[in-house]
């Protein structure tokens, strides 16, 4: 039996050096043991001899060092030998960690999960209290009782998060101090060394009570995420019981004092009436009188004709030369267009550009815009998901579209999708009945209706996408044939 001494309960570096030595000597896991600190080795345990000079380094999968670093933080007394057993097996079982049904792998993943969870709880539940220190000045101290040996693992998080503070976290086994530049580790502390309440605690309790929502109270879920083990060291937990007991009465008060809202039918009717309200003649004359795209673009930045301006980042006006012979009209800007303020630069824009290039069209000679100038979306997690604009929103923005057409006077208008076609024609049409046909808008302007590029992206399989892409490119070729001056320079 061989033994290797380790400096502290989560001494990963010490374990790694000792394990490499043991592996080079061919020591099997059942003949290996580890001691921590002043712990005495077994009666018959011998120190590991030096490794042979020709010893080679063990090879392990890339994921193993990170896994082993978590395993040695676990509270299991057998953790070091167990981690060594995995290392031993990996020398002959290269794919071991990929075998989810292996008992050792199952155990390792469970231990890793427990350590990660304990580290997460430490990050969430440490509460610093301010104390005055004659030597350190303003000093923040916290007491925490982890399940596992996670102080070294988690301390760098606090160093990054509170880099400008001088702080100490005390735990029963091992403590850590940050002086503003370096971390240092100290012996464990006792409960009587816990910091006392500070002046800011009352402010924190007031804040915690004010954000408590009695209508969303889920006691079991709360205790699952914040076990009672941690409550003694968190000042806000003193409020939990009275807040829970008063939740029902608080919910009733919220309902009783809530304003009476109009019915959904009334809301929809009011929205339709507001959207259908005609633009004052003097306002229209003011806009057209500018006879300048830049002036119209500046005016559009302040448009509040419908509610879409509120959540959107900015108005996305059209782009292109003022004398463009062709105007392409899409439905509305997408997520990337909303952020950049440019039309057709996202995924659908790439499909659009590819079709133009395949048809030999120079996009810089065309004017590209949308029927609706603000991005309509539904938030879903961290993403903003496109939502189709309704008729009222299209009508509210039609003023801007008519202004663009009036100022540019294109020979050909290309409506990309049904929303764009309806905005141009003032009535609903189907793509199936109008696609690839030249329609007279007036004596000088024709209309071509085709699909929106995003339709191609939504098709479920590659074959359908390829077929529709070819049809879309054919429509772009018809655009070039109708307006030859759009062609790319030879």
From TrEMBL:
Pfam families noted in UniProt: DUF4130 (PF13566), UDG (PF03167)
BP GO terms, sorted: DNA repair
Molecular-function GO terms, alphabetical: 4 iron, 4 sulfur cluster binding; deaminated base DNA N-glycosylase activity; metal ion binding; nucleotidyltransferase activity
InterPro entries: DNA_repair_put (IPR023875), DUF4130 (IPR025404), UDG_Type-4/5 (IPR051536), Ura-DNA_glyco_family4 (IPR005273), Uracil-DNA_glycosylase-like (IPR005122), Uracil-DNA_glycosylase-like_sf (IPR036895)
Protein name: Type-4 uracil-DNA glycosylase
Residue ranges annotated for the Uracil-DNA glycosylase-like domain, each copy included: 317-477
Keyword line: 4Fe-4S, DNA damage, DNA repair, Hydrolase, Iron, Iron-sulfur, Metal-binding, Nucleotidyltransferase, Transferase
SMART domains: UDG (SM00986), UreE_C (SM00987)
Lineage: Bacteria, Pseudomonadati, Pseudomonadota, Alphaproteobacteria, Hyphomicrobiales
Record organism: Aurantimonas endophytica
Keyword Transferase: yes
Family in the record: Belongs to the uracil-DNA glycosylase (UDG) superfamily. Type 4 (UDGa) family.
């Amino acid at each position: 039996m061989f033994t290797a001494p380790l400096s502290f309960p989560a001494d990963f570096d010490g374990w790694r050096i000792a394990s490499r030595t043991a592996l080079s000597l061919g020591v099997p896991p059942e003949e290996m043991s580890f001691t921590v600190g002043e712990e005495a080795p077994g009666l018959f345990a011998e120190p590991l001899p030096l490794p042979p000079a020709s010893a080679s380094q063990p090879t392990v999968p890339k994921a193993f060092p990170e896994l082993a670093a978590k395993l040695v933080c676990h509270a299991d007394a057998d953790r070091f030998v167990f981690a060594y057993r995995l290392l031993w097996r990996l020398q002959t079982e290269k794919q071991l960690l990929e075998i989810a049904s292996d008992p050792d792998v199952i155990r390792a993943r469970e231990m890793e999960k427990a350590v990660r969870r304990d580290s997460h709880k430490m990050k969430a539940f440490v509460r610093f209290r301010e104390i005055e220190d004659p030597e350190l000045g303003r000093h923040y101290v916290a007491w925490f009782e982890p399940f596992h040996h996670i102080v070294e693992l988690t301390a760098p998080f606090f160093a990054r998060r509170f880099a400008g503070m001088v702080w100490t976290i005390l735990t029963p086994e091992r403590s850590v101090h940050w002086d503003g530049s370096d971390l240092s580790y100290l012996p464990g502390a006792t409960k009587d060394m816990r910091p006392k309440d500070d002046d800011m605690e009352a402010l924190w309790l007031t804040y915690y009570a004010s954000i408590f929502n009695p209508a969303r109270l889920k006691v079991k879920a709360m205790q699952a995420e914040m076990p009672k083990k941690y409550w003694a060291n968190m000042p806000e937990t003193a409020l939990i019981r009275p807040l829970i007991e008063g939740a029902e009465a608080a919910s009733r008060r919220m309902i009783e004092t809530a304003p009476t809202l109009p019915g959904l039918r009334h809301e929809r009717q009011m929205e339709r009436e507001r959207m259908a309200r005609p633009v004052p003649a003097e306002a229209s004359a003011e806009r057209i009188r500018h006879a300048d795209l830049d002036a119209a673009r500046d005016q559009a930045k302040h448009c509040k004709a419908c509610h879409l301006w509120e959540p959107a980042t900015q108005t996305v006006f059209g782009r292109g030369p003022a004398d463009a012979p062709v105007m392409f009209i899409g439905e509305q800007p997408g997520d990337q267009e909303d952020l950049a303020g440019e039309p057709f630069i996202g995924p659908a824009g790439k499909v659009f550009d590819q079709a133009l290039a395949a048809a030999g069209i120079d996009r810089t000679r065309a004017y590209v815009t949308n029927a609706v100038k603000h991005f309509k979306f539904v938030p879903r997690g961290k993403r903003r998901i496109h939502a189709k604009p309704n008729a009222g929103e299209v009508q509210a923005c039609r003023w801007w579209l008519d202004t663009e057409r009036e100022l540019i006077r294109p020979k050909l208008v290309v409506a990309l999708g049904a929303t764009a076609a309806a905005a141009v024609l003032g009535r609903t049409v189907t793509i199936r009945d109008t696609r690839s046909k030249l329609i007279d808008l007036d004596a000088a302007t024709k209309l071509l209706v085709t699909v929106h590029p995003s339709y191609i992206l939504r098709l479920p399989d590659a074959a359908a996408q390829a077929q529709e892409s070819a049809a879309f490119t054919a429509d772009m070729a018809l655009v070039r044939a109708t307006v030859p001056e759009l062609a790319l320079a030879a």
